[in-house]
Amino acid sequence: MKLQDKVALITGGAAGIGKVTAQKFVDEGAKVIICDVEEETLSETRNALSASGGSIEAKVTDVTNKTQVDQLIDQIVNDYGKLDVVVNNAGVTADATLTKMAEEQFDKVINVNLKGVFLVGQKAAKIMKKQEQGVILNASSVVGLYGNFGQTNYAATKWGVIGMTKTWAKELGKNNVRVNAVAPGFIETEMVSEMPEKVVNMMQEKSPLNRLGSPEEVANIYCFLASDDSSFVTGSVYGVDGGVVL
């Protein structure tokens, strides 16, 4: 198994890509800790993944709260003796066009998608530098690379995540810590399933493959980047978008 005995933290792990990535990591032998602010959904996910017999823990954590983040990661290291992999997956949207976007909408998305990644990455980096090994994986998006109507805040954060990824890769490489980003395109998550059929069809048509991606296809890339198969990969941005940007 690719991640045998690796200790992995996945933020925003209660649903969507985070949940499926947690399942993939468990299946590949990792000891997984998922965190989220949605306590009920988090508990349901933990129970579902535990049924497969793997090692899975769930911790209610707000990634925008430094104290909570520090306590979570300190507890992981105390319990397991190390932290091998972090997947900075937690994220939110609050869409509106530029002239209609409220300051509160902008701040909310910046806080979770950018500050949250910074706080988790910073704390994880301190641990991984001492260990002289580790992997940090950050969730970006094709929106961060090419923009999207009505998503000034979201696009800014996902572009910012790429900047942090490349900076951290340069800073932490000497400590044998690899940092990469994954930039999904249109993925068939719970959120997409609630969209109007017309919108979903439009999203599909943007891809040369003429379909949406699956969360499993994103999870597979996270697994590759977390494993020793990608031991010479750092500072990269992996698009999982079905060619939507061609």
From TrEMBL:
Reaction(s) catalysed (UniProt annotation): a (3R)-hydroxyacyl-[ACP] + NADP(+) = a 3-oxoacyl-[ACP] + NADPH + H(+)
Pathways involved: Lipid metabolism; fatty acid biosynthesis
Start and end residues of each Ketoreductase domain: 6-171
Coiled coil residues, start to end: none
EC number(s) per entry: 1.1.1.100
Top enzyme class: oxidoreductase
Record-stated family: Belongs to the short-chain dehydrogenases/reductases (SDR) family.
Record-linked SMART domains: PKS_KR
UniProt KW Hydrolase keyword: no
InterPro entries per record: 3oxo_ACP_reduc, KR_dom, NAD(P)-bd_dom_sf, Sc_DH/Rdtase_CS, SDR_fam
Entry function: Catalyzes the NADPH-dependent reduction of beta-ketoacyl-ACP substrates to beta-hydroxyacyl-ACP products, the first reductive step in the elongation cycle of fatty acid biosynthesis.
Residues binding NADP(+): 89, 154-158, 187
Protein name: 3-oxoacyl-[acyl-carrier-protein] reductase
GO biological process per UniProt: fatty acid biosynthetic process
SUBUNIT field: Homotetramer.
Active site: 154 (proton acceptor)
PROSITE patterns tied to this protein: ADH_SHORT
